[in-house]
Amino acid sequence: MTDQTFKRFKEFIEGTLGIKIPPAKKVMLESRFAKRVRALGMESMEEYCDYVFSPEGYDLEIQQLMDAVTTNETSFFRESHHFDFLEKSVLPEYADQGLKDINIWSVAASTGQEAYTLAMVMEEFMSRTGYRFNYRILGTDISETVLHIANTGIYTEHQASKIPPVLQRRYCRKNRDPEQKTIRIIPALRNRVVFGKMNLMNETYPLGKQYHIVFCRNVFIYFERETQKKVLNRIFRHIMPGGYLFMGHSENLSNTELPLTSVSSAVYRKEGAT
Known about the structure:
CATH topology of the largest domain: Rossmann fold
Number of helices: 11
Largest sheet: 7 strands, mixed
Number of domains: 2
Order of helices and strands: HHHHHEHEHEHHEEHEEHEEE
Shape: globular
Number of strands: 10
CATH class of the largest domain: Alpha Beta
Distance between the termini: 52 Å
Structural class: alpha/beta
CATH superfamily of the largest domain: Vaccinia Virus protein VP39
Oligomer: single chain
Helix content: 40-55%
Strand content: 15-25%
């Protein structure tokens, strides 16, 4: 990959996705795009670059390029202390307030494990306490590929192994064909979750509501500081006063001027009453 080709890709990725691409990532970028170069029968990265940014190629290939660049690492009950805090602190508080309708947003939802984990936590809290929430979960991501997987709710048994066995029995169904080695999230949970495509780099988010609980974990680590600030401000607008923002364990908001108070490890509460 020539320096000029790298520069074209870098400017597009940083401008469209917000993901920082320093020179040290040139080799990584080349290795990720190599599969597409081969699949399209092309001879070089330069040919691929010209194709991607041509009128014809842009419509056909840009989603593939974005999928290659974005990191979709996720799992059920990842950073489990957050779900403990949600079930033991946040939900009891909302129940004590008599809150019935709860909106939850899984930002950068990837293949959906986080959103379905949230649904399991909600169901477990309601089963244990008898208090009923009318909750809805929104999962957003820029990748149509991962959103398709999320919508099916189908995962390998290995992926599902992160779910505690008792919850697997309640909320997952094994494929009738044992050779497939897959499970599917039960319809009752899938019906609580809606997935949609959204780019965090957009100036406004077409959400139409505010959220009581927002999970935005391990997203900001890929952004430059200025991009982090802009995206956080946009997300902040969609958090209900008194609502909670969950971040990744390596992310912190110590420098933000927004009225967000740290209440637990990488958990923040927006000032105001719910």
